[in-house]
Recover the amino acids of this structure.
């Protein structure tokens, strides 16, 4: 069973990871991951999955520089029974005026507490003719989701 202290540490690490992504801070991103971490994605992106902390850091920095990417965390759930967590996020792509919503499943290395694996799931396929890829009919505004910040 995961302790309350560990659960808080896992959530804090996810939030630091998102801060490092938004800041395009390579060193801070590296401090979030085990060296052999893997980030999995749905089909449609080139060169996936991303393998290794350095690759993950470089790819997110590329997104910030080339897409104007910023991310917001909408919800966080941390497991009491394992070194895992799930979040809901929004990926804002300011240069294209689009956004993508989705979830990620996190697996933490029990020895270091660092992120060892992320599995990303999109709320909807990345469709080029919609401004925000999200669930149809879901009341994002009514549920308090970010609608334009990122």
């Amino acid at each position: 069973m995961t302790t309350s202290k560990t659960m808080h540490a896992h959530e804090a690490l996810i939030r630091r990871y998102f801060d490092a992504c938004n800041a395009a801070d390579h060193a801070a991103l590296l401090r979030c991951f085990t060296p052999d971490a893997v980030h999995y994605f749905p089909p449609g992106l080139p060169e996936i999955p991303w393998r290794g902390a350095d690759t993950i850091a470089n790819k997110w920095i590329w997104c910030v520089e080339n897409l104007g990417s910023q991310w917001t965390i909408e919800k966080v759930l941390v497991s009491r029974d394992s070194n895992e967590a799930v979040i809901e996020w929004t990926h804002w792509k300011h240069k294209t005026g689009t956004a993508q919503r989705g979830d990620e499943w996190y697996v933490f290395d029990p020895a270091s507490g660092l992120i060892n694996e992320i599995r990303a799931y999109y709320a909807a396929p990345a469709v080029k003719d919609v401004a925000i890829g999200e669930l149809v009919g879901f009341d994002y505004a009514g549920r308090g989701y970010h609608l334009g910040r990122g």
Q: What stands out?
A: The chain has one domain: 4-133. Helices lie at 4-23, 26-30, 53-67. DSSP finds three helices and seven strands in the chain. Strands lie at 33-40, 50-51, 69-78, 84-93, 98-108, 115-122, 132-133.
